[in-house]
Amino acid sequence: xxxxxxxxxxxxxxxxxxxxxxxxxxxxxxxxxxxxxxxxxxxxxxxxxxxxxxxxxxxxxxxxxxxxxxxxxxxxxxxxxxxxxxxxxxxxxxxxxxxxxxxxxxxxxxxxxxxxxxxxxxxxxxxxxxxxxxxxxxxxxxxxxxxxxxxxxxxxxxxxxxxxxxxxxxxxxxxxxxxxxxxxxxxxxxxxxxxxxxxxxxxxxxxxxxxxxxxxxxxxxxxxxxxxxxxxxxxxxxxxxxxxxxxxxxxxxxxxxxxxxxxxxxxxxxxxxxxxxxxxxxxxxxxxxxxxxxxxxxxxxxxxxxxxxxxxxxxxxxxxxxxxxxxxxxxxxxxxxxxxxxxxxxxxxxxxxxxxxxxxxxxxxxxxxxxxxxxxxxxxxxxxxxxxxxxxxxxxxxxxxxxxxxxxxxxxxxxxxxxxxxxxxxxxxxxxxxxxxxxxxxxxxxxxxxxxxxxxxxxxxxxxxxxxxxxxxxxxxxxxxxxxxxxxxxxxxxxxxxxxxxxxxxxxxxxxxxxxxxxxxxxxxxxxxxxxxxxxxxxxxxxxxxxxxxxxxxxxxxxxxxxxxxxxxxxxxxxxxxxxxxxxxxxxxxxxxxxxxxxxxxxxxxxxxxxxxxxxxxxxxxxxxxxxxxxxxxxxxxxxxxxxxxxxxxxxxxx
Length: 655
Hints:
Helix content: 40-55%
Largest sheet: 5 strands, mixed
CATH class of the largest domain: Mainly Alpha
Radius of gyration: 25 Å
Number of strands: 21
Low-confidence stretches: none
Distance between the termini: 64 Å
Shape: globular
CATH topology of the largest domain: Glycosyltransferase
Strand content: 5-15%
């Protein structure tokens, strides 16, 4: 029976024609496992995942393997992007059992959803230290038939262990010592040769870079800026960045940023667009301007959906071959250009840097625009990677924030309009019965409830749009989301702690609450940042409440920020904004030069809003009149304000 045909997830639809009798996650699937008294085989992945495709071709499309699965298990397929709560619970179990995690994730559960055996990819034939998938299926089925009580007891022990290992962090402030210590620890973990942090594989550390840039802005730290510059330049010139079409791949398999894992994710590119725009704002870097512009264009050209939102990702594979669309040989470049100049510019050698003599493109000089366009036109003739075109609320929130902030700073009103259209889609499609849904596709909303990161990132995007447009509507919509998040996700026992699912969400074997920043901000850190921003924009009563909630949440992040700053980048960024005030700039009256000076001079995490004095529904502009009939800018830091100024030069000096 094809139960995946009605899914809104392209990942689930990829499996709709498998011979496996797949179920979607839900009470019906668990009830079927109880009725049959068989374990659940839970398979979790996502559309752009290379090894998910491999395991699908090797095992889930194989009739013999499917017969084993159907005979002994209730098989459930989950898109981790649609159900991050399910993914978080069983990833914690996988890591506890195996010491590592990843996708595809393969878990065996009791009919009540308690995990008793977990792993990731399993091959069709045995490998050293790894059974074949069929061997594993047979072993689990036999164990369930012969010693079910042992498996049930083991599963309960695992759930109890996970409960012991999780819980809110102890209170520990993120003070000056923690912020400076985080910079020192990041310096120790930095790769002094290649940029970035740690060893291969290397992921773009967008939130850590944002923190370091904000720390430099506030303190003048040359160490922080040097870490930012070296990593930003290395990523921008490496194979991680698409030198022709813009946009970043998910990560680099090597330490030198040469060969990427080719999928492109919306969240990475939104966070990196924001960072590079901020870097250009602070340093005037030509590289930062090129990358910010290219990444914004990539979002529009490659990820924008007909409804105005942004799709989740582009696949790592093209026709089952990883990177086929993107790599070149010297002869291929020569055919387009006529000589070896392009090969020299991009570091494409006869030996190749990827596979079968092909190379990724790295940039060893300035890229002439006509050459970029010519090569991109040629590349467009090749087969193109698939696109997961579902719209994820939180990731679109990140994109809205990035496009709105970058659009103001770089004076690109079109980017702000793209952000507005995405925000309108979220309001039109994702808000159902007064609550936020996680995903949609082709204008049809999915069933999955929004998690904390959805409420937080969308609210933050709306706040950025409020600042970029001066439209009171977006402040109203943002504060509604924040109020709902405070009411539904806060821990009733521990002040400042938050769960990732709402208090009335589906009950899983564990209620997830992960405070760590990873590929994107944690729900708790994203909420804290949005609350801090809202505290500078909302009316007095709400502002005080939001500020108190932000400070309370930040006190739960001190241990994390101090010990593992690489997994607390957004927390640290929010702390920097708090220590800086955050800086607020209100521009009253119509003066383009003042607005631009504010947008380009403000510190990261700062607030800039322009409009007419006492504009309805815009508290930041209240009681701030024109000065002598002329437009003026009011600068405040926290609760202290400077005198208003009327020229761009004076404003730049104040900032």
